[in-house]
Amino acid sequence: MKNKRLGIGLSYALVAMILVGIQPIIVIGRNEAIDPYFFTGITCLYQAFLFIPITLIHRKKRKNQLEKDPIKYEINNSLLNDWKKKKNINFLIYIGISFSISQVLYFTGLDMAGAIN
User: Fold this and answer.
1) What are phi and psi of 108, to 5 degrees?
2) DSSP 8-state secondary structure symbol assigned to residue 39
3) Which residues contact 32 (CB under 8 A, 6 or more apart)?
4) Could you tell me the residue ranges of all domains in the chain?
5) Are 8 and 97 in contact (CB under 8 A)?
6) 10-residue block means of pLDDT along the chain (117 residues)?
7) CA distance 73 to 52
8) Cβ-contact 62, 80 below 8 angstroms
9) Residues 54-78 pLDDT 10s
């Protein structure tokens, strides 16, 4: 079981690295008339629209596991509902803001390096 999970994790990491590698190509394709900050915001929205359905599918699978296997109730319930705690919501907001700022800095850095037209 652990080897299967390791393989899945490595495949997710590979996909993430490929997508990060594609970002400069996407950035170069930006029209000069589009503001870089607006472009960054749109890019973040596209990422959110891509990963929200994946997250919802994963949550649905967890809920089904919760119903089928009550022995693992505490683990699955924690994974499904711990985000609702105030401490965790603040942390998730912090992570979201950090990633948004990193995207702006990434595109600004590419602009300064001359990679953006």
Assistant:
1) -65, -40
2) H
3) 117
4) 2-113
5) no
6) 74 84 77 80 82 85 76 66 76 86 80 66
7) 24
8) yes
9) 888 888 887 787 777 767 666 666 6
